[in-house]
Amino acid sequence: MKPVTVLLLPGLYNSGPGHWQTIWEHTLPQAVRVQQQSWDQPHKDDWVASLAAAVAAVDGPVVLAAHSLGCALTAWWVQSGMPGLQNTDADDKIKGALLVAPPDVERADFPASSFSPMPQMRFPFTCKVIASSNDPWCDMAVAQEWAAQWGAEFHKLGAKGHINGDSGLGAWQQGQDWLTAFYTAV
């Protein structure tokens, strides 16, 4: 069996040095950040194309680790038919997705309007949605509803803001444990 590649999907403005995604990129040998054309002015179709290219470039199983707008990207990628899989079934390549702090892309003040509305369909792979009780970008009830629509396990992390570098999670061991659970299912 080929090793699992973790594709890190940051959100708007990318993930800075103290963000758990950046720490994972530097400490987990199987973690690769998916680069986007514009982190500051994202366009959904461009981001989906970048994810499709990253998935196509991996020769082996993939786990997605998305934060914020990366969660909406994952939903749009699924709704678009998961380009990049070529002739491979999603069950054979995508082993799971960790969707952390999905933002409410439908809010009037959300800065990436091309990601609205949030796709609401069952994902064809295992996923977990992790939400914070005091996330300024999404109410817990909205994140929980999306988790239900996507067929995802829902986990309340507590009061951790937007579950980013400012949340003080460091390497975020609990998140790594959830990630490891996807590996062991391979």
Which structural category do the helix and sheet elements fall into?
A: alpha/beta
The end-to-end span amounts to 9 Å
Number of domains: 1
Please give the radius of gyration in angstroms.
15 Å
Any idea what the CATH architecture is?
3-Layer(aba) Sandwich
By CATH's scheme, which homologous superfamily applies? Alpha/Beta hydrolase fold, catalytic domain
What does it look like?
The protein is of the alpha/beta class. The protein has a single domain (5-184), classed as Rossmann fold (3-Layer(aba) Sandwich), CATH 3.40.50. Helix content is 32%, strand content 16%. The chain has helices at 20-27, 44-57, 69-79, 90-93, 140-150, 173-184; strands spanning 5-9, 31-33, 62-67, 94-100, 127-131, 153-156. Strands 2-1-3-4-5-6 form a 6-stranded parallel sheet, sandwiched between helices. α2 (44-57) crosses α3 (69-79). 44% of the residues are buried. The model has no long low-confidence stretch (mean pLDDT 94). This is Alpha/beta hydrolase. It comes from Undibacterium terreum. Pfam families: Ser_hydrolase.
Write the layout of secondary structure elements.
Blueprint: E1 5-9, H1 20-27, E2 31-33, H2 44-57, E3 62-67, H3 69-79, H4 90-93, E4 94-100, E5 127-131, H5 140-150, E6 153-156, H6 173-184
Parallel strand pairs: 1-2, 1-3, 3-4, 4-5, 5-6
Helix pairs in contact: 2-3
Summary keywords:
6 strands; alpha/beta; 16% strand; 186 residues
Short summary of the structure?
It comes from Undibacterium terreum. The protein is of the alpha/beta class and 186 residues long.
